[in-house]
Write a structure and sequence with these properties.
CATH class of one domain: Mainly Alpha
Number of helices: 7
Radius of gyration: 22 Å
Distance between the termini: 89 Å
CATH architecture of one domain: Alpha Horseshoe
Structural class: alpha+beta
Strand order of the largest sheet: 1-2-3
Length: about 160
């Protein structure tokens, strides 16, 4: 009887440690990264997204989330790289496309930023409005607004720029 209890206890302990090891998947690290990013613990989030991508290099959502974290940390070039990787597989993701367009614009990559903004115009409208204001070092103030008017299903973009003195 004692032998059976010891066997059951050993099996229970081993199964618990095996379950803990099984949880250490790419999905596990992605979820930990999302939680850390939500808590504004960007270094921790970045480490979790890196581990997620080490385990599963084609986990596309991790590239997008890591790009947002890198952008929040000030690593604009790293963010742009991750947006590019993500958009190779998800070319119609509006949020990533807009983020990449703004990043390219801020880097002075005018032609490719324009391509991204024009690609956004061709995508179907969503149910929300996003307005972004930013100013370049050259004194150009740019406003990008995307919305869906109540009377139509066509996308509506307003891109305006004004020279500041």
């Amino acid at each position: 009887m004692v032998f059976i209890r010891i066997c059951c206890l050993t099996a229970f302990v081993l199964s618990g440690s095996l379950l803990a090891q099984e949880r250490r998947t790419a999905q596990y690290y992605f979820e930990k990264g999302e939680a850390a990013a939500t808590a504004h613990s960007y270094k921790t989030a970045l480490a979790h997204f890196n581990e997620c991508l080490r385990l599963e290099p084609y986990f596309m959502q991790a590239y997008f989330s890591r790009a947002q974290v890198r952008e929040a940390m000030g690593d604009k070039q790293g963010a742009l790289t991750d947006y590019n990787i993500f958009l190779e597989r998800n070319p119609e993701n509006k949020e990533a496309l807009l983020s990449r367009a703004v990043s390219r614009f801020e880097f002075g990559q005018w032609a490719v930023a324009k391509e991204d903004f024009l690609a956004l115009l061709k995508l179907p409208a969503g149910g929300e409005t996003n307005t972004i204001f930013f100013q370049t070092q050259r004194g150009m103030r740019v406003r990008v607004e995307r919305s869906r008017p109540a009377t139509t299903y066509a996308p509506c973009f307003t891109i305006t720029s004004a020279r500041l003195n």
